[in-house]
Amino acid sequence: MRPLLIATAVVTLTGAAACAPVITGGPPMALPPGLQETAQVGSITLSTAMLDAGDDLADTFSEEVREELGRCMWGTAPINVRVHIDGMQRADRVQAVLNGDGRQTLSGTVEFVDPGRDNRVVGRFPVAVTTNVGGRIGAVLGDRQMMLSEAFGRAVCEEAFGRNPRDRGRTTRLRDSLRRSQRSSDSSA
């Protein structure tokens, strides 16, 4: 089942890349609170007007964003995600190797669409991320599109759901630690 979902997302992304925006546009709107708890990632559709985005951007972007969203959208109501990338700047590899530093940016607009409600837009907001190339070795060996796509997915989770998907384990450990210390203080009182 999972390979079918990924294949569907890749076909959707490949067909939409370098086309007119897939988003409807409009002012930013937060996801309804109930949907923040019940949403599950459905399809991901990408569009970009940039011709130099790279052939594998759609594949990499879909895979990384889906992975990040899967960590913060753990409900059961499928919500489709539309993304229009309007800016991407990659660090120059040669300069990064020479300087040991470099930054890359990715920006766009994200819309959450409810397929169960005639594809009504239920959330919309801009997202912009900046990543570091990771020094000289990262500049040579690093996958710039993967780093940007992963950071973009995390930023979408943070913006839409108020949670960083990579902090889930840390949050759970902190909560458990607080509960243990609360029990200790209750039993000693």
Topology:
Blueprint: H1 2-16, H2 33-38, E1 39-48, H3 57-72, E2 77-89, H4 93-99, E3 103-114, E4 120-132, H5 135-141, H6 144-161, H7 168-188
Parallel strand pairs: 1-2
Antiparallel strand pairs: 2-3, 3-4
Helix pairs in contact: 1-3, 3-6, 4-5
Structural account:
This protein is of the alpha+beta class. It has one domain. It is 48% helix and 25% strand. The chain contains 7 helices and 4 strands. Strands 1-2-3-4 form a 4-stranded mixed sheet. Helix 3 runs parallel beside helix 6. It is elongated. Residues 1-19 and 170-175 have low confidence and may be disordered.
Q: Average pLDDT value?
A: 77
Percent of residues in beta strands? 25-35%
End-to-end separation: 53 Å
Secondary-structure element order, N to C: HHEHEHEEHHH
Radius of gyration: 19 Å
Low-confidence stretches: 1-19, 170-175
Q: What would the principal axes of the Cα set say about the shape?
A: elongated
Structural class: alpha+beta
Tally of helical segments = 7
Task: Provide a concise account of the structure shown.
With 189 residues, this protein is α+β, with helices and mostly antiparallel strands. It has helices spanning 2-16, 33-38, 57-72, 93-99, 135-141, 144-161, 168-188; strands at 39-48, 77-89, 103-114, 120-132.
Pick out its properties.
189 residues; alpha+beta; 4-stranded mixed sheet; 7 helices; 4 strands; 48% helix; elongated; disordered N terminus
